[in-house]
């Protein structure tokens, strides 16, 4: 089932109720056809029932005349019996012609076979009657058996009726025939009693039983017969002949204990026969009505079958047409959806909408897909614009980082010069300290050798002049170091500006990456790393600036000390020159020089310590420059990586074909 197309699945889904509809329609049509066939079979059965009624009527008349002729000594019933037998034979031939039925099954076929056997024994029964070999009860019983077998054929046709009204009418007709048969038996019994002059006990019991059976069958007829039949029978019951028959039967009940019955047998037989003939008229009408009812039932069943067959064909064709139209529309809708989605998935084309003309769920789904397609197209257009802006910004950032790296390279070269100057200044200060020690030793020798003052004064003047020159040189070096520290401060300001700009660029890049969503996550990581490096550079620059401030303060103190030392040296030179004129004050002046020299030595030692600090700080600053240069290199590589990612993203976005509305919105 998973490999079937959706239209085939829908066709299978529609096929199941359609098959159910076909099955129901087929069953209904088959039932209508069976009803039509049954009603068609009932047509000859109803005609056979009418012919059976005719034959039963003639047999009943023959039975009465045969029973009366047994005790007829005068021969009054002989001629009438012969005429009745002729009428019976004619009715029998008609019944046999109508009784050639095929296709009967079950109880109806069995009863029809029994009837044919009973009718075959009729000729032998007549011979026995003519020979008076039978008694009246025997004659009545044997004729009654033939008639009962004949009427049983009608009862056997009741289950074959097509519907309940037809079955009720056929059952009522059978009850009416049974009642008429019982009336014929009453006619024969009372005729025999009047011929004999009285009722025998057995004959009277039979007479009373027949009357009860007559009432029972008429009650059954009243329950099952159609209203028209009941109305016709009610009119007959109100006729004088019915009243006379009822009076004769009531009189027979009253006189059954008498030795002689009043009335003549022929008169009673004629009266009863006239009433039976009236009933026969009703019977013929009932038979015609039954045939008409069967014909109407057959026509109705045939019409129902034709209607069922026609409705089945119409509903089938209509259902197939509706299913075909629905499946066609569904196939077209799903095909349009499939083509639209495949175009988006395989060709990455967002320029054409999915076209589904229906207003059902497929149309709503197509509208939702088109809305999503427009939103995705707008989003891709915005991402493409963002990539273009990022490409421009990344190029500018890369250029800026290259400038920063060049500035750092220059600053690193200047720092190397500062380190060399600081080293040289440290050596100079050490030299000054050494000279101060020598001056101190010389002063001690001068004190010890006061007698050699003239000769040593020149040496002292020369030494002091050298000290002054060294101090002047050290002062110049310290001033130069201070100038270098100011240059480094300027470079640090540039580095801090670059760091601030890098931090701002990284922040903008992070904002653009956040706008890009999932596709800008890698760019956001790079932007965060650039921002972190910028913050580290700014922190290192702050530390270097603090060290330079301390170096500047130390340099200013050293310059001040050297200035004072140089001034002192000049004073020593003047005093040494005056010593030549004032030898008397040599010892005192040399003592002062000794004290000054000691101060110079102390100051020089302090200057050497400060110079060492300056040298150490400059080395730290150089390390900071090295770190900044490394960070700048990482920033350049990160910028190049970010630019490559943006170019790749832009290439991927250009693979999508966007609609005109998206390009107009971007424009």
TrEMBL record:
Protein localization: Membrane
GO terms classed as biological process: chemotaxis; signal transduction
Residue ranges of domain NIT in the record: 50-297
Gene Ontology cellular component list: membrane
Highest taxon in the source lineage: Bacteria
Pfam families (UniProt xref): HAMP, MCPsignal, NIT
Gene3D superfamilies: Methyl-accepting chemotaxis protein
Sorted UniProt keywords: Membrane, Transducer, Transmembrane, Transmembrane helix
InterPro entries: HAMP_dom (IPR003660), MCPsignal_dom (IPR004089), Nitrate/nitrite_sensing (IPR013587), Nitrate/nitrite_sensing_bac (IPR010910)
Domain Methyl-accepting transducer intervals: 386-622
Domain HAMP: 328-381
Transmembrane domains' residue ranges: 305-327
Predominant location category: membrane
Record PANTHER family: METHYL-ACCEPTING CHEMOTAXIS PROTEIN MCPB, METHYL-ACCEPTING CHEMOTAXIS PROTEIN TLPQ
Similarity remark: Belongs to the methyl-accepting chemotaxis (MCP) protein family.
Name of this protein: Chemotaxis protein
Organism: Zobellella taiwanensis
Lineage: Bacteria, Pseudomonadati, Pseudomonadota, Gammaproteobacteria, Aeromonadales
